[in-house]
């Protein structure tokens, strides 16, 4: 993946336009609510959210690579760091921590203590199986696939279900050979 | 966590809006554009209700419909679309037309354009414009719902429709519904 932190540079370029999070948070909430009405199966809602995220991630990656001050990542560990420190910061304005690496460095967790998607949200009893923030898994999967990493991404801890943090488990399944139609500019 | 001061990248809002349209118009109801539109409008309505509630917490009640509509044109628009409505017209019989010459959510839309070189240049340009307006229309279900929700919260029951004039300009038509006494 073409991304790693250049320590001397500010992590995020000032070219990012920011808006009040309220509209974003409420819009996401209303979408989840509508999907819950449209589908009887909660698992299907989780799947839809993941698909929406995948499509968003596949588009956002360009924006990210264009605006973030980063260079090519050498391995999955570096990629995870960039996602946690630059990606989450740039888009959601929060920072994630990378933790719980597997011995083979193919699997890790992103820990979020703060998450704008869930401001004002409380899950009713009837939504216990809902992975409310599942869109984030899709975003990560979609973005990583665009830079040749096939992954499996899922929530293993969820504050809306009573956990102390949000924990996103990210597993690298396959690194496809890079075949860019262009050359890196470095 | 108080939502007021928190900020996210605008591309989050844009992406969510684009994907919302793609989900309902292309994936869930590709053959039923009206149904897709109603679903998206309903989502906007919920958001409008909640936003108006938040934005007016510190204000005295509006005394008439015109005052509520002006609030939408100025404060609400500025919060959500980062500018004010450019022109407000009314027939004084319950119809209001809000004109935005550069509607923020239409400024970043791209449409697959037909080639515009050669002999069919003019017709291709016209066809592209028509396609662009049609595609852009899908992105107005949500703001229509947003406006209807906000006005409903302010005690103005209404129906809202929109049309794209020349991208990225558009007009929102608000028809205030008579209350059944």
Automatic annotation (TrEMBL), chain A:
Pfam families: TRAPP (PF04051). GO terms for biological process: Golgi vesicle transport. Transmembrane segments: none annotated. GO terms for cellular component: endoplasmic reticulum; Golgi apparatus; TRAPP complex. Keywords: Endoplasmic reticulum, ER-Golgi transport, Golgi apparatus, Transport. It comes from the Eukaryota. InterPro entries: Bet3, NO_sig/Golgi_transp_ligand-bd, TRAPP_component. It is found in: Endoplasmic reticulum; Golgi apparatus, cis-Golgi network. Coiled coil: none annotated. Belongs to the TRAPP small subunits family. BET3 subfamily. Homodimer. May play a role in vesicular transport from endoplasmic reticulum to Golgi. This is Trafficking protein particle complex subunit. It comes from Ceratodon purpureus.
From TrEMBL, chain B:
CDD domains: TRAPPC6A_Trs33. Coiled coil: none annotated. Pfam families: TRAPP. GO terms for cellular component: cis-Golgi network; trans-Golgi network; TRAPP complex. Gene3D superfamilies: Trafficking protein particle complex subunit 3. One of its GO terms (biological process) is endoplasmic reticulum to Golgi vesicle-mediated transport. Belongs to the TRAPP small subunits family. BET3 subfamily. This is Trafficking protein particle complex subunit 6B.
């Amino acid at each position: 993946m073409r991304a790693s932190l250049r320590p001397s540079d500010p992590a995020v370029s000032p070219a990012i336009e920011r808006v009040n999070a309220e509209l974003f948070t409420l819009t996401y909430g209303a979408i989840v609510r509508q999907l819950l009405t449209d589908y009887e199966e909660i698992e299907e809602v989780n799947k839809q959210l993941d698909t929406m995220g995948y499509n968003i991630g596949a588009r956002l990656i360009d924006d990210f690579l264009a605006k973030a001050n980063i260079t090519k990542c050498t391995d999955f560990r570096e990629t995870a760091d960039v996602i946690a420190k630059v990606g989450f910061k740039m888009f959601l304005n929060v920072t994630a921590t990378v933790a719980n690496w597997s011995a083979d460095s193919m699997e890790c967790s992103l820990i979020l203590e703060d998450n704008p998607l869930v401001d004002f949200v409380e899950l009713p009893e009837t939504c216990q199986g809902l992975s409310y923030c599942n869109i984030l898994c899709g975003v990560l999967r979609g973005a990583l696939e665009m830079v040749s990493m096939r992954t499996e991404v899922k929530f293993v801890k969820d504050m809306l279900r009573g956990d102390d943090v949000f924990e996103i488990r990210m597993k690298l399944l396959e690194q496809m050979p890079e075949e860019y139609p262009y050359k890196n500019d470095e | 966590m108080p939502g007021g001061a928190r900020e996210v990248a605008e591309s989050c809002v844009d992406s969510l809006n684009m994907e919302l349209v793609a989900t309902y118009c292309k994936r869930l109801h590709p053959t039923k554009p009206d149904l897709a539109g109603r679903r998206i409008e309903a989502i906007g309505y919920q958001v409008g209700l909640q936003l108006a509630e938040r934005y007016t917490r510190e204000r005295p009640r509006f005394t008439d419909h015109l005052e509520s509509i002006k609030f939408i044109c100025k404060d609400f628009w500025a919060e959500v679309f980062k500018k004010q409505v450019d022109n407000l017209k009314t027939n004084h019989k319950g119809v209001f037309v809000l004109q935005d010459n550069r509607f923020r959510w239409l400024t970043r839309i791209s449409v697959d354009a037909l080639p515009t070189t050669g002999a069919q240049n003019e017709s291709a340009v016209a066809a592209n414009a028509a396609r662009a307006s049609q595609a852009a229309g899908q992105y107005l279900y949500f703001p229509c719902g947003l406006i209807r929700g906000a006005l409903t919260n302010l005690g103005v029951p209404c129906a809202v429709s929109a049309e794209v004039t020349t991208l990225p300009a558009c007009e929102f038509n608000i028809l205030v519904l008579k209350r059944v006494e």
